[in-house]
Amino acid sequence: MTLEEISSRLQAGIPGCQVELVVNGSPSAQNSLLIDREHGFAAAMLMRDQFGLDYCSNVTAVDWPDREKTEKVKSRQMVDGVEKEVEETKKTTIPGYLEVVYHLFSIEKKHGPVVVRMRTGNRTDDVALPSLTPVWRSAEFQEREAFDLFGVVFEGHPDLRRILMWEGFTDHPMRRDYVPPPDDDLELLGER
Amino acid sequence: MTPVAPAELMEISMGPQHPSTHGVFRMDVSLDGERVMRLKPVFGYLHRNHEKIAEAASYLAAIPYTDRLDYLCSMTNNWGYALAVEKLAGLTVPERAEYIRVIVAELTRLQNHAGMVGFLLQDMGASGTPLMYAFRERERVLDLFEALSGARMMCNYMRFGGVRVDCSAEWLSKAGKLVANFGGFLDEFEQLLTGNEILMARTQGVGVLPRELAINAGVTGPGLRACGVNYDLRKVDLYGVYDRFQFRVPLGEHGDVFDRYMMRVLEMRESLRILEQALGDIPSGPVMDPKARLRGLRPKVGEAYGRIESPKGELGFYLISDGSPNPYRYRVRPPSLINLTVLEDMCIGQNIADVVVILGSIDIVMGEVDR
Q1: What angle (nearest 5°) sits at the alpha carbon of residue A151, between those of residues A22 and B28?
Q2: Nearest to residue B83, comparing CAs of A19, A27, A67, A191?
Q3: Please, what is the angle between helix B95-124 and helix B129-149, to 10°?
Q4: Å between A171 CA and nearest CA of chain B
Q5: For a designed S-S bond to B330, which of B54, B58, B168, B263 qualifies (C-beta 3.0 to 4.6 A apart)?
Q6: Per residue in B307-335, pLDDT tens?
């Protein structure tokens, strides 16, 4: 089943589900589907039960901070009484978000990967996504890891706790803007 | 009738320094007498944020770090990473290098599975003997790795686009001798173990994993095939030159510890078959893609997921490139960690002594679990 077929069947099967094809420019040509987070869980159930994607291999998060896009805009202006072509650089800010990526395979039909992504609203207070652990158990530890290291909150996860960092740690080390505390702040180092 | 108070559960913390936990790993276990009622694994003792380190390094500089994931199988870790970079950058691998990769990967599988069986028996209380037999053979494989790459365990041998150095004809004949003798070791090993009454009593019907749960929980490798699921990436993805070799995929029936033990023994025999064919057919030629730029590789913007059948299961690498010399996102899909998802399901209702055996049958290495 191609990504286009999956996309159209998802939109047909779930009212209001928005699916967007994300094109991958690398030679691997592994394109992916961006699914809106409100319908992510229903889409996952449909993919598992009807499209035969019984195996969720890899779950991970990606941090995309605010990006500045610079565009060069050419316009004609009057400079010192002469009309000239002037180049201006325009900066627009793309707001940042956290993205969760699922790599799905079918053990039964032996095909894949089908890459599915979901995005949060921003990187600070709107970081919830539906947990797909009830659909694929293999996401259990991997979603905990994404919560621990990236700060994505998975709603509906049975046991969302830190997994690699210790209890009481507050930051998310895999974020791009993470600054490690100074050495002498680490409680593990103790008194020197 | 006398009212009976509900039995009080005893909380026990197994590990992190318990010898059977294969490194620093802890299980919070609740016991009713000797029976396990609840089991929660606790990770992170070996966490060094491998992914963050690799994102700060160039594509080439990440290869030595991959050695340290599953430190018993550095060759297959290298291969998984190299495969992902090759997909990302569109590199090809010369034929001789593909054969060398298959040879070292199957040698890795031999020494990993032999060691795993040895440790499993050690966990069961067969102190020393099986493990020492396994390690005697493992040392021979490591001698070969040392002759080829200069290191016994941290081989740092593969590169995207090929392998670092070619192997000599002498090395190939030494590998051929090892392969010819390994079957005899396996016969001896099986004679000692497979029909052994204690081993059967401790493993058969213990830690049964249902087939559907195994698939849903993403268990891969021998643990999945012990449940009877025919899914071996060497056959499914046919990466490298695995399409050229005749070999079978052993399948279990019950999904218990004994089947998982048997999978390792049978897979070693199939690995020997692959090795015989690969050593016989290896072509001559270059071992590096001349177009591959090791230093300063800047793949086009995009992403790739590459996966191989490592001895422990599906080892995947997910890379995102933003066009700069280091990966924007570098992710390892660790089979050891994900195979532990079902540890609690397999242990509930079993005796505490069986937990040790069940954990041993999953075959984990903490360097990969905690990363």
Answers
A1: 120
A2: A27
A3: 160
A4: 14
A5: B54
A6: 999 999 999 999 999 888 999 999 999 99
Cα→Cα distances A13→A130, B223, B355, Å: 19, 35, 44
Torsion sign (Cα): A12, A17, A18, A21: negative
Report the SS3 class of residue B332.
strand
Q: Which amino acid is at B305?
A: Y
Q: How far is CA B31 from CA A94, A118, B26, B124, in A?
A: 53, 40, 15, 20
**A57 vs B44, B218, B321: nearest CB:** B218
B286 vs B162: CA distance, rounded Å: 9
Omega within 30 of 0 (cis) for the link into A113: yes
Q: What is the pLDDT of residue A191?
A: 43
In degrees to the nearest 10, what's the CA dihedral of A128, A132, A138, A140?
40
Residue A57 to residue B47, Cβ atoms within 8 A: no
Q: Does A110 touch chain B (CB under 8 A)?
A: yes
Q: What is the pTM of this model?
A: 0.88
Nearest to A2 by CA among A26, A19, A17: A19
How deeply is A121 buried, as exposed, middle or buried, from its count of CB atoms within 10 A (0-12, 13-18, 19+)? middle
DSSP B30-94: EEETTEEEEEEEE--TT---HHHHHHTS-TTTTHHHHHTTSTT-HHHHHHHHHHHHHHHHT----
| B313-321/B302-310 β-pairing | antiparallel
* Strands in chain B per DSSP E: 10-14, 26-32, 35-42, 158-159, 162-163, 302-310, 313-321, 329-333
Chain B residues with CB-CB distance to A30 below 8 A: 87, 303-305
Q: How many helices (H) and strands (E) does chain B have?
A: 15, 8
Question: Residue A50 has what DSSP assignment?
Answer: T
Question: What are the tens digits of pLDDT across the range A137-155?
Answer: 999 999 999 999 998 999 9
Contacts of B342 in chain A (CB under 8 A): 137
Q: Which of B218, B299, B371 shows the shortest C-beta gap to A55?
A: B218
ipTM confidence: 0.86
Farthest-apart Cα atoms in chain A, separation: 73
Q: How far is CA B345 from CA A174, B24, B40, B100, in A?
A: 30, 21, 10, 40
> A107: closest CA among B78, B227, B118?
B227
pLDDT of B155-196, one tens digit each?
999 998 889 898 899 999 999 999 999 999 999 888 888 888
Looking up tokens 């070693």 gives: B268
Alpha-carbon distance of B156 to B171, in angstroms, equals 18
Tally C-beta pairs within 8 A across A and B: 112
pLDDT range class, residue A62, cuts 50, 70, 90: very high
Q: Does residue B45 sit at the A interface (CB-CB below 8 Å)?
A: no
CA distance B292 to chain A (A): 14
